[in-house]
Amino acid sequence: MGPVFFVVLTVYLIIVMAIAIWSYLRTETQVDFLAAGRTIGPFVGGGVLAATQISAGTFVGTAGRHYLAGVSWWFPWLGIWAGWLVSAFFVAPKLRRLGALTVPDYISARYGSAKAGALAGVLIVVAYTIYLVAQFQAGGEIAEVVFGIEPLTAMLVIVASTGLYTLLGGVRSSSYIDFLQALIMVAGLVIAVPVLLEQVGGGSPLAGVRRSLAFLDSIDPRLRGWYYSPRELLAFAIGFGFSIAAAPYELTRFYSMRDEKTVRRAIFVAIGFQVIISLTIMSIGMLMRVLFPNLPSQDQATAIMAFQVLPPVVGALLLVAMLSAIMSTVNSVLLVTGAGVAHDLYGKFWRPNATDKHLINANRVAIVVLALVPLYFALQKLGDVQGIVLEQAKFIASFFFVPIVIGLNWKRGTAKGAVAAMIGGFLACLVWTLFFQEHYFPRYGIDAVEVGVLCSLVLFVVVSKLTKPNPNQILEPFFGSESESSS
Amino acid sequence: MEIAGDEARVQHVIPASSGVAQAYAIHVPGQLLEVDEVRGPAGAVEFTVIDERGARRIAIPTSRPVLVRYRVSGSVDRIPLFVSGGRAQLTVALDVEEPYLLRLNGAVASIDTDTSMPRFSRAEDGTLEAGLSSLPSFIRLSEGGPFSFARLADIVALLLTALGGGIVLRRLRAAANAAYSESQGP
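Above: the input entities. Below: the structure tokens describing the complete assembly.
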């Protein structure tokens, strides 16, 4: 890539470390570390939510799927935004009002059961270990294409740099760094599209569009139509949408915002960022198919674009943005899983009397360990990046959508119902994925996420109805005085 | 590939395929593309050229790799290459290989390697070279210059990043001031 890239990268890393050190000096309590002292406003919060969700799965995987399948891969975004809206109206305000630090905190409080919270903590760790595999794999992909270095080296660099700023400043540093990353991502993407069009069409972007579409029609007409069937797209949208509505790493970000109103506004800002990003990512994927129609893998499209097609500074910025997206997501996931282990398991079951300082240190140790485990799996390359992200989203949806979203809006749900819903949803999704998906989805259009969520819902309702309702004092923070009439 | 004035002579390999090979060269306005020869391991191969709206398609009745030779005249700032079409497969990226080496001879001294596509490096004998994992649909040759589209894009990118950095710094400063005010009490 030459000296330009290294100058851009160095300047960026200096800024990131400066923010992390600034935050470290202001991190005194666990609320500071995990929720940035609850000071984040709607604009920064929206950028943070967008940056957290826009991951390597988007830059590498989504652009790759657009490269492969064309315009039809855009439709799953509608599911994602529907998930955000469900979150904005039915989940986020209540969670923020509760003032919990983590999702297992919420599960424990809502159902009055520390064991249910602990189970949520374990499931979070399992699901996000899978998610980190996709992030590390994408980082290795970029590094291999651009720098020609071994994926293991690239992944270790990502773990070390991300781990460092997560360890130093917790959520306060990552919130401001994520906001900066969101701005760089949007700037890099927005500039990349006209540059690609200029490559194809000369001075006229419209000529670039016309020539690109005509060429795509020649090499594969389905790129402008239905590469995936509407049924397949619906399954993808449901998987992403249900998981976004209950995604722990997104929900954790709500806790760091000022109040409920700020959370709701931030979600709309995040959707705004994502509309821009989704359209640009789609354009980039399809334009890269025009420019390099025979890449060995769709996952290489954006890295090749930054390295071979864009001018030096734009290319370097976009590569930094891609690495930032990976770091941002890794950072968010590590915060959630680290908190799951340290705060929800270690702090509640092992050392209930631990001090704030002790818990912060336990959290930091957990972050280091949890960052290293997915490395092994990432090196095995178990699937394409978007495929891994999608599978993980299906699992999140299967075990969290019902206890979180339905549980926040149906006061009859009990702890045993929530535990049954989480375990049942997880197992149903797993069994369907391993043994039935390949055969039954093409024939009957039944996807693992639908089976998982349905099983989870049925178990939640049936087991809750069969068990004793939760007492009023547990329900009141979530349902107010109306909870009295339920019991 | 050799460039002389407003003509480029190109030869490259079209990889092996299953069944009849179909390769596509993107249409560039104001440009004439004439295929001279297609050669397989056993000698010349018959071929058919079909003009489509977005591309010139060449059909070759062999599944083995062939060498195609053709001339491009008129506008040569974008030189099409014949690339495969059809359904792409969902694949996992394995080790990155660069089996294609593009080499440009002739009038290439004024070409700006930073803003051309793909990104070339200049060899000692003055030719331009690029190692690639797959062929691009065309080669874009740019003479650069301070007001080229690529340079302007670079400047805009830097300005936007500086603006973003400024916003973050302002937010950080505001947060620090708020924290200081709180610590001072009423």
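Note for the figure: The mean pLDDT of chain B is 82.
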